[in-house]
Amino acid sequence: MNDVNPLPLTTSVVFRLGTLGSVVTARFTTALAELELKPKHVGLMVALDSGAPPSQLELARIMAVAPSLVVSLADHLERIGAVDRVRDPADRRRQVLALTDTGRELLADCTALAHRLDEELTASLTGPEREALRRTLGLLGAEAGLPTSD
Amino acid sequence: MNDVNPLPLTTSVVFRLGTLGSVVTARFTTALAELELKPKHVGLMVALDSGAPPSQLELARIMAVAPSLVVSLADHLERIGAVDRVRDPADRRRQVLALTDTGRELLADCTALAHRLDEELTASLTGPEREALRRTLGLLGAEAGLPTSD
DNA sequence: TCGAATCGTTCGAAGTGTGAATGGTTACTG
DNA sequence: CAGTAACCATTCACACTTCGAACGATTCGA
């Protein structure tokens, strides 16, 4: 008989982060549907919101995603009026994306929505616990090259 | 002019958990490839490891996944010798899955792998920070019905 | 014993993302 | 100042994952 599992897989941060991230994203995705958006659309808007207007190819690099995917994401965002898409006059190969006022409002809606889900998700935590979680996730995310605001 | 963003989307726990979870899962998936496994296979083995041998349909409910998906996951695990699949003599409609010794070893490999990634991921955290993160994620995961061990 | 419910399986379909090929634009090089 | 190479966006075909409906086998209820 082997010894008892010293540290089960379920205790690993990787496992817990992955599984919990998946259910949280599922909830977020559901809520987002009312705005005609999916998480990647939001990711694109976040990238546009913080930083100079980049070309679609740069966006693809930032989001670690295929350039062809940026095309379809931008197509949709343009269709609902959330972004402007203009050829860069200085280099007419580039397509420069920029959030419209509508896009900024939409992003604000997503933000409100996320924070509402936050309260729901972390209702059982104390204030300091919640802040510690937020801070630690932000730190690890920043190390992984994810968008942050601290 | 509206006021400055009071709390950007990127500070929300939902956002950070979702994005970080996604990159962490990607790393885990890559590492898992050497064992001929994908995250859902591991999820199935975890479910089998902790608890009485359930039918495939129960597994599907536990994993919140379609029964037909459990079939293909179990097919693969059986092919590599990680699980036994026997008809329940008491009810020959049921297919009862159980980890083999090989399966338990494989699960131990996954566990070691996850904890190795843990160290890599949380290298910049202090010990207490790492434990607080683990604990909080476990708590929220348990509330969401995810497998735990506390 | 007969019909309804249950379990597992197969199969077709939807959704998501990638990579190769294409057309238009710019930059380099002799 | 050609002509070629590199670059950007786009389209399209494809792979992958997952689901839901249909089906056969088995069990349960009346």
Automatic annotation (TrEMBL), chains A, B:
Top-level taxon: Bacteria
The HTH marR-type domain, residue ranges: 10-142
SMART domains documented for this protein: HTH_MARR
Range of residues in the leader sequence: none
PANTHER family cross-referenced by the UniProt entry: TRANSCRIPTIONAL REGULATOR, TRANSCRIPTIONAL REGULATOR, MARR FAMILY
UniProt name for this protein: MarR family winged helix-turn-helix transcriptional regulator
